[in-house]
Amino acid sequence: MGGAELSAAASGAGAGGAVVPPAGPGRNLVRDHARAERRRRLQAIGLVAPLFLFLLFSFVGPIADMLRRSVYDMDLAGVWPRTAAAMHAWDGNGLPPDSAFAALGADIRASAEAGRVAVAAQRLNYPISGGRSLVMNMARRVEADDFKPPADWRAAFLDADPAWGSAETWSAIRRASGPVTDYFLLNALDLHKDAAGHISRAPDGIFLSILWRTFSISGVVTLFALLLGYPLAYVMTHSSGRVAAVLTLFVLLPFWTSLLVRTAAWIVLLQDQGIINKALMAIGLIDHPVRLMFNRVGVVIAMVHVLLPFMVLPLAAVMRGIRPETVRAARSLGAHPWTAFRRIYVPQTMPGVGAGVLLVFISAIGYYITPALVGGADDQMLSYFIAFYTNETVNWGLAAALAVVLLAATAVLAAIYARVVASRGGLVT
Amino acid sequence: MKTRLTLLLGAALALGLAGAAQARDLTVVSWGGAYQQAQNKVYFTPFKAAGNKMIDESWDGGVGILRAKVQGGNAGWDVVQVESDELQLGCEEGLYETLDFTKIGGKDAYIPDAVHKCGVGAIVYDFVLGYDKDKIPAANAPKSWADFFDTTKYPGKRALRLGAKTNLEIALMADGVAPADVYKVLKTPAGVDRAFKKLSTIKKDLVFWKSGAQPPQFLASGEVVMTSVYNGRVDAANHDDKRNFGIVWNQALYTIDSWVILKGSPNKDEAYKFLNFVGKPDYQAKLPEYIAYGVTNKAATPLIDPKRLPDLPTAPDNIKNAISLSTAFWLENNDRLTERFNKWAAQN
User: Fold this and answer.
1) Homologous superfamily of A208-423 in CATH?
2) B51 & B96 share domain
3) Is the pLDDT at A428 greater than 60, yes or no?
4) pLDDT tens-digit profile of B209-243?
5) Once rounded to an integer, what is the mean pLDDT over residues B166-192?
6) Pseudo-torsion of CA B192, B195, B198, B199, nearest 10°?
7) For residue B125, what is the enclosing H or E element?
8) Which of B223, B336, B343 is the closest to A273 by Cβ?
């Protein structure tokens, strides 16, 4: 539950596990003590090890591998090793030497026979519009039964498609030939690097605005969750057992329902012919349905509902630990009820506020099913694009780069937040 | 003593695991829901009754998942039903076995669209314009995508699939491009501009759906007056929920889902046996009784109940003016056009 209870439990376990040194001569006492200490440490490591290993293999490992893909780029070099070597040897000015054309020709032929050419074609399709068919058409040519390797590969390439004679094409091949690339990270930051190596803003970039959208939606959701959750947690902790139990049940109920079902329920409520609009029209407040769905309003409503427990539970846990005497003491010393609440009660709940805000905000950042179902086309958050590039177009490099950008931005925000809250004497973690 | 026991236990466990991996029954993976229930009745149950062992599972698609499974070694799946772009991408990446059509009745047994190096077509289905016949009288019924964009004749919201795919084709056809020329136009930058410009004309009336179950719900609740929708979903709503939804078959986009065998499957012989079984015309002809998809064996269509035929994408009248959703085009352009779509969506 709350951080307070957790730390209490931990210190309790520590006290219970303390070793009482046996009586005996001083030297033995020291040695026995050291031995007992070692045994205890080993025991602790043994107890933690299974979870640690589990996390390492199922969580840290795969995530590290995914993040590595944002900069490690062997799609092209793995399939076309000769071309990659020729590109590393080339200075990148103008067009490469004939030997590079020959290397690419041999590589396309070998990879087409091995059924791997599409991997490189896909990789070149990212920087070059039409790059996929450029490569696949060439592959079909060299794979044909009557094809003889030409003496002049350069002419053969240019004959297939004039795009093979463009400096842009070869610059893209060179920059894709690994093993490390900045292409995906630049792309995720709406930046573009031209053939000469100058970095500039990409005119068609969308990701920075989507990153901003992700944080602003998450911020608004967190704010509403706090505004709704704080009074709720207060009532939950300061009412009789029966009422508190019912309220807790209502808060926990969404936890036990699948996310899809909850979102579908909101669609039923929010749509034009839905319960809310019908009720408002029946009592004459509005005469046209209000747009509550397929826009930002619907996304915020549904997400606040889904994430509310993450705000209420830490708040309630902290509030339960606040001694009522403190507020009473303030009142008896002449403070106005509001002053007592504001200056004595609220500061004591800050650890709960800190934990709740952080939990809700971080969870909100990763949402994509709810915005996809109740939002409009311009309400999709960054994780929607990560899922899109991972599953639909299998552009794992860009998916990983977007994940890195999201992770870094979140880490920076969390660090700033921790510092701000800590300086106010809050946030105990 | 203790170590030897541990070693023995470990060896026994390893042997047991290896044995389990080898003895796994043929695992067939499809799309779940009403469709897989129909497949169960028409294909899986008779296949098992004929003395074969198999289990079926379901998935939600995504070639990333297949890549992770095949590259991770023991995939656990043998035969998977995939969409056309998953078929093409996965085949080029070497995730599937190359199909030996001589083991499943020969290439000539199937319609040409259903024959692929790595897969055999299972069903043909359409992306169509759907509407509620109870709300739009027959005399006024929409006839083409141009009507979808006519907000004076048909006021109200309309729904399209979230993303660029399918919507750009629809916009071009609505703008007067002949179905046969859609991809020719869309391959030019001017064609893409034209499609987005057409979409902009109804932008304020557009909403977007993400899951295939949503469009019939939107029609049922009156949220939208028209929507792009899978033909099978309309049919299911009409039969199961007693709705009165209509389909405009004119200018439909059709696509094919295929069966593939995952590379390195330990049950390859059983997999071929399964594909041969589900490719037979007598079994295929029964599928449309349960779900309104066309089937791929040439000999199956004449065996289908003539009363059912008008509901199917493969009925001659329905496929007359339809176009095949181009896998090649979307493989090359989905990244770029999806970004463009989102830029378009964020503009006012």
Assistant:
1) MetI-like (1.10.3720.10)
2) yes
3) no
4) 988 888 999 999 888 999 999 999 899 899 888 99
5) 96
6) -100
7) strand B119-132
8) B223
Reported as type and span, the H/E element at residue B80 is strand B79-82
Our count of domains for chain B comes to: 2
Band (pLDDT 50/70/90 cuts) for residue A423 is low
For residue A394, the chain B residue with the least C-alpha distance is B64
The answer to whether residues B185 and B223 belong to one domain is yes
Number of neighbouring beta carbons within 10 Å of residue A150: 15
Tokens 């067009």 belong to: A95
What is the per-residue pLDDT for B22? Answer: 52
Query: Do residues B192 and B330 share a domain?
Result: yes
Distance CA(A186)–CA(A200), nearest Å, equals 10
Note whether A77 and A413 are within 8 A (CB).
Answer: no
Amino acid at A269: L
Residue A16: is its pLDDT beyond 50?
no
Q: Is B63 on the interface with A (CB under 8 A)?
A: yes
Question: What local confidence, expressed as pLDDT, does residue B242 receive?
Answer: 92
Name residues whose C-beta falls within 8 Å of residue B238's C-beta, 6 or more positions apart in sequence: B244, B245
Could you say which DSSP state residue A387 is in?
H
Contacts (Cβ under 8 Å, ≥6 apart) of A269 = A275, A276
Residues present in chain B in total:
348
- The answer to whether residues B130 and B241 belong to one domain is yes
Which residue type is seen at B339?
Answer: E
CA distances to A39, B12, B317 from A17, rounded to whole Å, are: 12, 38, 81
**Residue A387 CB neighbour total at 10 angstroms:** 17
Q: Which residue of B has its CA nearest to A293?
A: B207
CATH code assigned at B108: 3.40.190.10
Contact flag A117-B92 (C-beta cutoff 8 Å): yes
* Farthest-apart Cα atoms in chain A, separation: 100
Q: Are B341 and B226 in the same domain?
A: yes
Of B210, B336, B346, the CB nearest to A372: B210
If DSSP codes are grouped into helix, strand and coil, which group holds residue A298?
helix
Question: Is the per-residue pLDDT at B256 higher than 50?
Answer: yes
Would strands B79-82 and B26-30 be described as parallel, antiparallel, or unpaired? parallel
Residues B132 and B118 in one domain: no
CB pairs under 8 A between A and B: 84
Distances from the Cα of B335 to the Cα of A123, A128, A189, B332, angstroms: 12, 12, 16, 8
Distance (Å, rounded) from C-alpha A379 to C-alpha A245? 36
Residues A376, B92: C-beta atoms closer than 8 Å: no
Together in a domain, B105 and B208: no
Mark residue A197 as left, alpha or beta (left: phi above 0; alpha: psi -120 to 50; beta: remaining).
left
Name the pTM for this structure: 0.80
On whether the CB atoms of residues B26 and B271 are closer than 8 A, the answer is yes
Q: What percent of chain A has pLDDT over 70?
A: 92
pLDDT in tens, B29-55: 998 887 899 999 999 999 999 999 999
Query: Quick one: which of A196, A125, A370 has its CA closest to A267?
Result: A370
Residue ranges per domain, chain A? 75-181, 208-423
B197 and B107 fall within a common domain: no
Q: Which of B157, B335, B342 sits opposite A393 (nearest CB)?
A: B335
Domain that includes residue B156, residue range: 126-254+324-346
Give me the mean pLDDT over the A188-195 stretch: 86
pLDDT, averaged across chain B: 89
Token pair of A222 as six digits: 């967190």
Cα separations in angstroms, B229 against B125, B192, B219, B255: 11, 22, 10, 13
